[in-house]
Amino acid sequence: MSTLRVAIVGAGPKGMSALERLVHHASHSTSRAMYEVDLYEPHRSPGAGPIYDPRHPAYLRMNIAADIVDAWWTPARVPDVASHPSFGTWRSLQLPSIMKEFGDAALDAFPPRAVVGRYLEHAFAKIVESAPESMRARVVPHRVLDIEPMGAGWGIRADGLGMSGKPYDEVLIATGHASEWSDALTQVSRSSPSSVTTVFPVQEQLSRERVAPGAAVAVRGFALTCIDAALALTQGRGGSFHALDHPWRLRYERGPDDILCLLPFTRSGRPMLSKPLPDLLANVDGISEITARGQERIRALAASYDLRVDLLPVLVDTAVASIQAVTSAGDNPVSLDPLRADADEWLRGALDGSLSSVDGDDVVSQIAKSLEIGCGAAAPHALWALGHAWRSLYPAIVDRVGGNGLTAVAWPAFVRLATELERIAFGPPAVNAAKLLALVDAGIVDLTHLHGGRLVGVEEFELRSAAGSTRVDAVVDAVLPPPGIVGLSTAPLATLLAAGAVRPRHGRRGLDVLDDGSCVGANGVATPGLAAIGRPTEDSTIGNDTLSRRMHPLAELWAERVVARARRERSCAARPRADLARQG
Ligand SMILES: Cc1cc2nc3c(=O)[nH]c(=O)nc-3n(C[C@H](O)[C@H](O)[C@H](O)COP(=O)(O)OP(=O)(O)OC[C@H]3O[C@@H](n4cnc5c(N)ncnc54)[C@H](O)[C@@H]3O)c2cc1C
Q1: From 3.50.50.60, 3.40.50.300, 3.40.50.150, 3.90.226.10, which CATH number describes the 3-59+118-179+483-572 domain?
Q2: What ipTM was assigned to the predicted interfaces of this complex?
Q3: Which atom belonging to ligand 1 lies closest to the Cα atom of 16?
Q4: What pLDDT is attached to residue 142?
Q5: Which part of the chain is CATH 3.50.50.60?
Q6: Which ligand 1 atom is at minimum distance from the Cα of 548?
Q7: What are the CA-CA distances from residue 286 to residues 249, 283, 329, 372, 380 (Å)?
């Protein structure tokens, strides 16, 4: 074989990160190996994909601070210059044009996702352009339906193309979030015009034709996607938010095509809390030392550590020390013992799954309180400090708990704990929390059925809970499919799973993968030439479904392996000719 054929299935941010690493290693290799790289991607903006679609409306914001976004891998970074810019550098170079389009929001720490999408699209083009002469990289704008063994490699069947003529030696699956799953809202029939099974792209899914002006809309889920849906159905239809005489509180003024109300419903009613403003803790003395100490303790946990005995105390200590650091400069020092007891009790409840549910007014006051604390207008409390502890210790938790860092028996408790902490640590940015509260104040977001609401009906729907029942005109599913592959029916992973080429890791939902992304098959051995990255591997790896490239070297290790293979096969192919030449 003289040319290594590589297929990357899905050219969203993760597929792009793999390409970037492949280009890097192929460019720095002394071998004369050749590469043909096909990136299968049906979305019109490779690099950005549907989540960071550059055409998204501006009110769909980033959920992590965008200053960490960088299309080039930090440890091997070429200088941060115009030809290879990080998001920060690109944004400052593009400022006049993006501000013209997106206004001040473009400057925000949590800018519109479309702005980040522009950057990712730009970076993708740069990466393809910078491929060495030995590599031909091209986008194949088609959805992959199946990946099947073909000779010693893999054949790819794509929508509108049929089966690839030649096999690929290496296939990397980077398909991101699944589109179908077994727990999707079953009552929501695709044929009913008033039922919306997915929120994105909002321009299509939540159009006036799908969700009529004046409609009462039931929304399953009360997390970030619910907020995006609420904004699409209000601000996206001409409504507007106005500053009030209060830090970070807004007033909503209805637009002409607004819905009547939006009724979220969930099992527990527990809300996501507002993330703090990014610079809130920047100047607090000692805060980075507290984080470093906590991370060190987590990385040093013994092999047989116990979540309750070993991990929880690190979270509690970090939370309490952070509160102490934040409040020590003020006039009203807080009493730390009750905070410690609150934090400890809350974590134990999260671990056991025994946290109490929350109803209407409490929900509003919890979000409002987190917003005030996050903007520096109120003293921190235990819950807020635990959110901070989880965010700041997360890289160490990813290192220590991901992979085989926890037994299958302990895993379900960790998932319960992580789900609750995610809610208080990785909630909406302050601007979106403020908008949500303004929509509640305006009577549009109605929390009557938030806790325990149940949808009843097939063609016509009613939302029922202990608070009574409400007839609704439209239903929106704002719960995303879970990480991993269990219970998913999306091609091409479902067929690979059925064929035993991939398997979930024991006791987890994510694909069983090695450190370089190689998929482990049903026989317990790595399946040659097949790897995966991102959401399908999530919770076998953890913290991998993010734009941040700081926590996982998976793309790097995959590219290293592929280039090493190309080098090896190139030198094997070259050897007989050299021998022949000597004989001649
Ligand atoms: C609504 C939403 C908001 C988010 N906001 C943030 C945020 O602010 N910050 C953050 O860090 N993370 C955020 N995330 C997490 C997000 O998943 C990651 O940041 C990132 O998008 C993961 O990249 P990916 O390439 O793995 O997946 P994706 O971005 O989903 O990209 C997968 C790509 O694969 C393509 N694809 C899918 N199936 C096929 C197929 N069969 N054949 C060919 N191509 C296929 C898709 O078209 C897509 O382009 C958000 C997620 C969602 C759902």
Answers
A1: 3.50.50.60
A2: 0.99
A3: 25
A4: 97
A5: 3-59+118-179+483-572
A6: 11
A7: 30, 9, 12, 22, 16
